[in-house]
Amino acid sequence: PRVVQPREEDHRYKVEHWGSWLYIITNLGGCTNSKLMRTPVDKMAKANWTEVLPYEKTTKLDYLVVFKGHIVVNGRANGLKMCRVLEMGTGSSPPKVHDLAFPEDCYDMFADHNRVFDTALFRFGYSSLVSPSSVLEYNMVTRQRTLLKETDVPLYDRTLYTCKRLFATAKDGTRVPISLVYRKDSAYGAGKGPSPCMLYGYGSYGMCIDPCFSSKTISFLDRGMVYAIAHIRGGGEMGRDWYEKEGKYLAKRNTFTDFCDCAEYLVKGGVTTPDRLAITGRSAGGLLVGAVVNMRPDLFRACVAGVPFVDVMTTMCDPSIPLTVTEWEEWGNPNESKYHDYMATYSPVDNVGPKDYPAIMVTAGLNDPPGA
């Protein structure tokens, strides 16, 4: 075994081998969302790395899938999954580049099992808030795609539904994505007025909540509701800074204010009204909905909190509880006054007051230690 590059603080990189080159996804040079570089296999030191694709702040690179004649770069662009195909040729000149196009405004996709090296066929999974999970093959030469398999959903007619992507503007000017799905014949879909709405959020640990298909959502839609996902800060949809600089520690309140701003945007946009707006979240998402009903109880009619992490101060101040110490990496160490005082401003249990709260349903469990 050979070390490509010794460990360095704050340096992240992933390596794939193609021909006589190593292709490297790296955050070198302050590229927070990473860029693609390469180096000869016999000159692996960082000083020999050269840029393959220019860095784009709105594009986050995650991993590579390597074929004999192509490399597929997988990541996120403007908050949605993306695939960028590099036509490698001999590797002696810059590759030709094209992106896979997807038919819907909001969707989820991922590279499936691609175990054949000498092929022009890239296999990937795809779904959306309307389209059930499927597996497709994309011919990287002809740019044609073939549907191999799609999950059968009994009695489901996708032509009745549509999804779209919106952007709310947070109070600090940040644009926050919202994924929306609804029946075309609902009040909102038919342009007849606002509909009841279920708004979901998570916004922690850098986790991305991608707009994928769920048969459970259909029961909402068939009752005339709109289902929405707020891709708020604290998640990772818009890149690493969306979490690391703007959604944790002393910036954690952005998660909660973003969610309120998304709710207000849906109300102002005629999607729903406060008296017909329900919200839901689980675990850290339960903390989210617990915090926002304290901040804006007037904005919501109902709240469903699943195994919610609501007693933040007690939990974070007790290192004997499983996971507490590791959770300090998300919320901060309350032994430091700046984190202690900041957490106290949003901890749901510690901010309950004499307010006209929405209806709240809470479920508990034994398999989520921070939330149980």
How does this model look, in words?
- There is one protein chain.
- Helices cover 16% and strands 31% of the residues.
- It has 372 residues and is an alpha+beta fold.
- A 7-stranded mixed β-sheet has the order 13-14-16-15-17-18-19. The chain has a 4-stranded antiparallel β-sheet with strand order 1-2-3-4, with no helix packed on it.
- α3 (253-268) packs across α4.
- The mean pLDDT is 96.
- Residues 213-369 form the Peptidase S9 prolyl oligopeptidase catalytic domain.
Task: For this entry, give a set of tags.
2 domains, alpha+beta, four-stranded antiparallel β-sheet, Rossmann fold, 7 helices, globular, single chain, seven-stranded mixed β-sheet, Methylamine Dehydrogenase, Chain H, 372 residues
Secondary structure layout:
Elements (H helix, E strand, L loop, with lengths): L12 E6 L2 E6 L8 E6 L9 E4 L5 E8 L3 E8 L2 E8 L8 E4 L8 E4 L9 E7 L6 E6 L5 E6 L10 E9 L5 E9 L13 E4 L14 H7 L4 E5 L9 H5 L8 H16 L8 E6 L1 H12 L6 E5 L5 H5 L7 H8 L5 H8 L14 E5 L9
Parallel strand pairs: 15-16, 15-17, 17-18, 18-19
Antiparallel strand pairs: 1-2, 2-3, 3-4, 5-6, 6-7, 7-8, 9-10, 10-11, 11-12, 13-14, 14-16
Helix pairs in contact: 3-4
EC number: 3.4.21.-
Keywords: Hydrolase, Protease, Serine protease
Enzyme class: hydrolase
